[in-house]
Amino acid sequence: MSSDLLQGKCILVVEDNEAAREGLAFALCRSGCAVTAVAEGGQALALIRTGFLPDLVLLDMQTPGLDGWDFLVRRRGDPTLAAVPVVIHTSLGVASPQWAAGLGAAGLLRKPAEMEQLVDEVRRYLSPSPAGWATETTTRREG
For a Cys-Cys bond, which of 60, 75, 77, 137 suits 108, CB 3.0-4.6 Å? Predict the structure, then answer.
């Protein structure tokens, strides 16, 4: 797929680890995305309540304050936010595509993700056809 798909797309990164947050933002910006990054779900909701509406949310589940689970619960109650795809970005062992779908997420990206994997997954979830959402996961190959 063309990287043009990502040009100008706004991604909201929710990640409490500062180095990881900066790395994710760097990779996405380098691919043409506009990135806003926050440390926890409460900050993300506060931004959204001021009118900021991203094209996609990349969500870490384990953050201080309002965590990923709480963010997803509150998202369900807001029709505008519910329309924004969320990709869970986690290292939780229980995480699976079915688990992510059950929480209302479009997809799952396992930590640590290679930057190329990250960009490919974001591109996939921003594509015009959401076929395959929450049916596949990207895992890091051990080797």
Answer: 137
pLDDT in tens, 90-136: 988 888 889 999 999 998 998 888 888 899 888 888 876 544 444 33
Contacts of 102 (CB under 8 A, 6+ apart): none
Structural domain that includes position 65? 3-138
Rounded to whole angstroms, the Cα distance separating 46 from 93 reads 29
Bin 4: left if φ > 0, else alpha if -120 < ψ < 50, else beta: alpha
In a domain, residue 31? The reply is: yes
pTM of the model: 0.84
Q: Which of 128, 127, 75 is nearest to 105 (CA)?
A: 75
- Whole-angstrom distance, CA of residue 12 vs CA of residue 86: 9
* Tally of domains within the chain: 1
